[in-house]
């Protein structure tokens, strides 16, 4: 494993871990190799649910929706435990049913899951919105591996040196689309926003949970952006995040909008991105719904 630091021509600074040709966030534990091995050999339980998601695609939104559904309560649960980031002993000791998170590309996920044990859920989001969201988060949190302007971040994001997804969003999605087992549900951010109730019903069905309509409607109301944001701000500070965020909680709930990229992308950046997007969809044969706003 190498710790890479790059300063580009505009003085933007990137720091990340690199292992076997893949870039990783510094937050991935230790030398990466050992943690990847532990994740691959992770002891999956039949009732585990893993949120396998590209960062900034709505991880907290999906996690808290699933946890409301699984707990049968409307309680806000905050930030979950990540199998590449957190203490594995703590994860192993969690009582069932566990709901876990990972931003790793799917090839690195637990082998037992690839054989169909447990369930895996994801949300896809317009990459333009998520790169903007991510850059805001990077600016707010001194220690995540990037300091610099949006132009530099966008360049990194579309390259295979994007350390948030062990490569670009495009190849991350390709990996996800190759997931073979039926224990997998893919929802989209814009559809969850537009048709919240229908997606909550779909999730409950996938999770084999038998809730009445009244409860499912309450969940739909309680996972709206303003509600989650308010609850997040009330959660107690956690030492886990103190080194990254003064408030002791991750700065997650910013705008929660579809199409916010329009406030950041220049016309030239947008044209370049659209061109690349078309090329990548074609080259990789991506099946993802590409009708992003
Ligand atoms: P923005 O920065 O665009 O506001 P993650 O949890 O993966 O880090 O994703 C964070 C993004 O999801 C943030 O995007 C956040 O506002 C958005 N988000 C969280 N809850 C949401 C909700 N209920 N509705 C819409 N967006 C939500």
Q: Could you describe the 3D structure shown?
A:
The protein has 293 residues and is an alpha/beta fold. The chain has one domain: P-loop containing nucleotide triphosphate hydrolases (Rossmann fold, 3-Layer(aba) Sandwich), CATH 3.40.50. It contains 13 helices and eight strands. Strands 1, 2, 3 and 7 form a four-stranded antiparallel β-sheet that branches. It has a four-stranded parallel β-sheet with strand order 5-4-6-8. A hairpin with a 5-residue loop joins strand 1 and strand 2. The longest helix is centred in the C-terminal third of the chain and has 18 residues. The protein is globular, with a radius of gyration of 18 Å. The mean pLDDT is 95. The chain binds adenosine-3'-5'-diphosphate. Adenosine-3'-5'-diphosphate (A3P) binds next to helix 2, helix 5 and helix 11. The site of adenosine-3'-5'-diphosphate has 21 residues, from helix 2, helix 5 and helix 11.
Notable traits:
single chain, 293 residues, alpha/beta, Rossmann fold, 4-stranded antiparallel sheet, 4-stranded parallel sheet, 13 helices, 8 strands, binds adenosine-3'-5'-diphosphate
């Amino acid at each position: 494993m190498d710790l890479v630091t790059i300063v580009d021509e505009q003085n933007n600074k990137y720091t990340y871990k690199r292992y076997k040709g893949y870039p990783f966030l510094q937050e991935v534990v230790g030398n990466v190799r050992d943690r990847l091995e532990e994740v691959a050999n992770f002891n999956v339980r039949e009732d585990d649910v893993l949120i396998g998601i590209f960062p900034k695609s709505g991880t907290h939104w999906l996690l808290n929706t699933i946890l409301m559904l699984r707990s049968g309560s409307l309680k806000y649960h905050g930030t979950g435990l990540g199998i590449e980031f957190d203490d594995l002993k703590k994860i192993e000791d969690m009582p069932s049913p566990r709901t876990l998170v990972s931003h790793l590309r799917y090839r690195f996920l637990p082998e037992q899951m690839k054989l169909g044990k447990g369930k895996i859920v994801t949300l896809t989001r317009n990459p333009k919105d998520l790169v903007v969201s991510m850059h805001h988060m990077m600016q707010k949190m001194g220690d995540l591996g990037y300091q610099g302007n949006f132009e530099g971040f966008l360049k990194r994001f579309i390259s295979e040196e994007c350390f948030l997804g062990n490569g670009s969003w495009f190849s991350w999605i390709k990996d996800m689309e190759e997931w073979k087992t039926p224990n997998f549900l893919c929802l989209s951010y814009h559809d969850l926003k537009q048709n919240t109730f229908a997606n909550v019903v779909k999730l409950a069905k996938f999770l084999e949970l038998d809730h009445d309509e009244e409860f499912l409607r309450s969940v739909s109301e309680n996972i709206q952006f303003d509600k989650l944001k308010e609850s997040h701000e009330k959660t107690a500070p956690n030492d886990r995040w103190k080194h990254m965020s003064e408030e002791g909680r991750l700065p997650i709930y910013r705008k929660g909008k579809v199409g916010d990229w329009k406030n950041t992308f220049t016309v030239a950046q947008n044209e370049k991105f659209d061109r690349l997007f078309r090329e990548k969809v074609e080259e990789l044969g991506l099946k993802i719904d590409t009708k992003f706003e």
